[in-house]
Amino acid sequence: MKPVEFAKRIYEKRRSVFERWEEYVEKVKERGTRLLPETKVYVFGSVVRGDYHPMLSDIDVAVVSPGVPEGAAERVRIKLKLTEGFDESSLEIHLLTPKEWETYRRFIDVYREI
Question: Is the pLDDT of residue 104 over 80?
Fold first, then answer.
């Protein structure tokens, strides 16, 4: 396969994910509520603003729960469960406690609760 064809294939795949981002985030929310108590899910950044680029952007998703573990290994395990079967390169999962989310919000211009 030629490099241009390869790049086009990647672009089309990512574009498809971005066009259906709400479906993916709803699945993340469903999984999050099963894994963690009192889960809230927010999408923020370029997807919410509508100025994303499929090759340059990602879909920023904050999964917020008081049950988020402190350990990095356990957080990675949960993130993998949240995105199982997805193209993880398009989704950027931010697994946060409510206190961590409050810190994030200071630097976020726009977000939407799902």
Answer: yes
% of the chain with per-residue pLDDT over 70? 98
* Residue 93 to residue 45: CA distance in whole angstroms: 13
What pTM was computed for the model? 0.90
Closest CA to 24 of 76, 83, 92: 83
CA 31 to chain centre: 13
Among residues 10, 26, 30, 36, the alpha carbon closest in space to that of 90 is found at 10
Count structural domains, the chain.
1
DSSP 33-79: HHHSTT-EEEEESHHHHT---TTT--EEEEEE-TT--SSHHHHHHHH
Residue 85: give the domain boundaries.
3-113
For residue 107, the domain's CATH number is 3.30.460.10
